[in-house]
Amino acid sequence: MKKLHTIDSLRPYLIRNQLRDVPKTIVFTNGCFDILHRGHVEYLEFCKSLGDKVVVGLNSDDSVRRIKGLKRPINTQNDRAYVLSALKVIDYVIIFDEMTPLELIKQISPDILVKGDDWSIEQVVGKDFVESRGGSVILAPFVEGKSTTSTIDKIRIREKY
How many CB atoms sit inside 10 A of residue 64's CB? Predict the structure, then answer.
């Protein structure tokens, strides 16, 4: 089954899920996932532990540049989506171009919204919407020292030698 979707290609699944006697729990998270590392994998495993289906909103190349600067992303959105799609813990990947995933969250209407605990609950985009529909927002534990920035910094330090 293909994991990379647009909101339009994912919509039939979302509608079927809502009509089930026992709907599956949909977990949503988002991010750049530029250079996949252990922190990302543990984070995504945490997401999967919370529900049945994990939907990842992946920032497009343009949105990553707007958020992180012109030197990012390192990997293209298609490469990042391909790598994420290879992970068993992810069910669907949707690339989005907006600065925030709010519109995507509204269309998916997840049961659980997850961000890393390097955010505060109040900062989580989509929190009010998800909670207004009876869902919950959960902060995943941050894996200390495991970030894309720290990985890039290690590479730069090693390039000097």
Answer: 22
Q: Which residue has the tokens 């020292």?
A: 145
CA separation for the pair 71, 7 (Å, rounded): 28
Retrieve residue 141's tokens. 């534990």
Q: What amino acid occupies position 155?
A: I
Distance, in Å, from the CA atom of 147 to the CA atom of 29, rounded to the nearest integer, reads 16
Structure tokens given for 147: 């970030």
In whole angstroms, what is the distance from residue 54 CA to residue 140 CA?
14
Task: Please report the domains of the chain, with CATH numbers, ordered by start residue.
Answer: 4-159 (3.40.50.620)
Per-residue pLDDT tens over the stretch 96-120: 999 999 999 999 999 999 999 888 9
Neighbours of 118 (CB within 10 A): 11
